[in-house]
């Protein structure tokens, strides 16, 4: 069996196991198996569960085999490879984007959302080790069907169309960022063990967009920490010049220069399948962070969907060589519309943040101002904000406004006790 067929069979098997976990085992036996469990459960509370064990195994196996988990077991990576295959079948040939952000952005997401806040919480709330394999339940960190479907469409398909092969894995995945360090120290690596003819087939075969030919001829091995040990390059080399080979870590040569690459993706054989935006990296980073933070958490969006939309929008704005539009005048109009949408939502996010902050400090006048702006601009009605406004208006002596917001909160959450209690307080107030 070829490497490709073996990988496809294993990836299909992984999806079957996921389905069995959801439909058969449920949370009674094994709870949520998710990478973020290591950060939200173990790092934060000291709880060892199925997700935490998965991360530990992934980390240890990466030290030996490289990011084998990403190449052979990650369902999200499989979705992106499927997308790439479908696009090619439709004769759509997206260029894979070369950028320093494939290192910078995933680390920022990992630190900001998963490591730093959970460590800070752990420092203030000392924890004791405990084991809870069946906790939390399977759907604890999974979004609803709408947000879940949009996440797969954006991060599994659209990001590949705009940023190329495995765009999410390269530019956004915090779990890949977490495995970069052990991957740089892995004992098994793709190494040059024969005579290379410079055909660049290894680079063309790589599903994660690494310039394999450059690396094996410069460093005698693949040093890129995005390498997922999929072995597509070794099986695709017509000269059998590559091998997946073990070297004792004490004898392994590791230099900083191995990770600071230049002149990649420039050879005439592969020039047309890659595009570099390195001169615009920091502009794209700024746009992505501003756009991502402006929508993260709104409409029930998780970090993956928010930053997937953000980097696609940012890349669309900075990409001046986009010929997908028949009329060139559409591009500046679309850019303006995109910027307006993200600025609008940034005002919503800041208003909510300030409104809640001022509420906690009992500065009700300021809080009311911010939350009123938020509900005016936010297309989605949130009962909690109306409930808070009703409470604050009542404390400020504005019974009519308190009643108005309490009724809206009750309509939005008819079975919640908060609005009912507030209405009783309003009706009983003088």
* Mean residue pLDDT: 92
Structural class from helices and strands? mainly alpha
How do the strands of the widest beta sheet line up side by side? Answer: 1-3
Q: What is the general shape?
A: globular
- Low-confidence runs: none
Provide the domain count. 3
| Most strands sheet | 2 strands, parallel
Number of strands: 6
Q: What pattern of helices and strands is seen along the backbone?
A: HHEHHHEHEHHHHEHHHEEHHHHHHH
Strand content: under 5%
Count of alpha/pi helices? 20
Cα Rg: 25 Å
What share of the residues lie within helices?
A: 55-70%
N- to C-terminal separation?
A: 81 Å
Write a short abstract of this structure.
The chain has 430 residues and is mainly α. It has 20 helices and six strands.
Overview of this structure, please?
- This protein has 430 residues and is mainly alpha-helical.
- Helix content is 61%, strand content 5%.
- The strands form 3 sheets. The protein has a two-stranded parallel ribbon.
- The chain is globular, with a radius of gyration of 25 Å.
């Amino acid at each position: 069996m070829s490497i490709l067929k073996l990988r496809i069979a294993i990836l299909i098997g992984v999806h079957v196991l996921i389905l069995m976990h959801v439909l058969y085992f449920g949370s009674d036996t094994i709870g949520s198996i998710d990478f973020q469990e290591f950060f939200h459960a173990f790092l934060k509370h000291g709880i060892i569960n199925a997700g935490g064990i998965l991360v530990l195994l992934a980390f240890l196996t990466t030290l030996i085999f490289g990011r084998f988990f990403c190449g052979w077991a990650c369902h999200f990576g499989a979705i992106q490879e499927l997308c790439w295959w479908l696009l090619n079948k439709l004769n759509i040939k997206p260029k894979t984007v070369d950028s320093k952000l494939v290192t910078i952005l995933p680390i920022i997401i990992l630190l900001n959302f998963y490591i730093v806040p959970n460590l800070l919480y752990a420092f203030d709330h000392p924890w004791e080790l405990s084991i809870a394999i069946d906790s939390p339940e399977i759907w604890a960190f999974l979004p609803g069907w709408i947000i879940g479907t949009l996440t797969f469409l954006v991060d599994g398909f659209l990001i590949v169309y705009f940023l190329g092969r495995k765009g999410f894995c390269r530019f956004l995945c915090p779990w890949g960022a977490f495995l970069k360090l052990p991957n740089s120290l892995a004992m098994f690596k793709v190494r040059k063990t024969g005579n290379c003819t410079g055909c660049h087939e290894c680079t063309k075969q790589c599903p994660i967009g690494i310039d394999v030919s450059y690396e094996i001829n410069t460093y005698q091995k693949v040093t890129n920490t995005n390498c997922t040990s999929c072995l597509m390059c070794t099986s695709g080399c017509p000269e059998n010049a590559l091998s997946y080979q073990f070297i004792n870590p004490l004898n392994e040569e590791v230099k900083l220069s191995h990770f600071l690459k230049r002149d990649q993706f420039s050879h005439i054989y592969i020039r047309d399948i890659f595009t570099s935006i390195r001169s615009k990296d920091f502009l794209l980073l700024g746009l992505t962070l501003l756009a991502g933070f402006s929508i993260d958490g709104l409409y029930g969006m998780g970090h993956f969907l928010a930053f997937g939309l953000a980097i696609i929008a940012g890349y669309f704005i900075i990409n001046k060589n986009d010929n997908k539009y028949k009329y060139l005048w559409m591009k500046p109009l679309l850019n303006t519309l995109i910027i307006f949408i993200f600025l609008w939502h940034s005002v919503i996010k800041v208003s909510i943040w300030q409104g809640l902050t001022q509420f906690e400090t009992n500065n009700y006048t300021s809080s009311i101002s911010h939350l009123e702006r938020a509900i005016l601009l936010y297309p989605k009605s949130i009962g909690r904000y109306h409930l808070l406004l009703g409470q604050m208006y009542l404390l400020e002596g504005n019974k009519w406004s308190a009643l108005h917001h309490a009724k809206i909160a009750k309509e939005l959450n008819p079975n919640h006790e908060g609005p009912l209690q507030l209405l009783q307080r309003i009706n009983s107030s003088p």
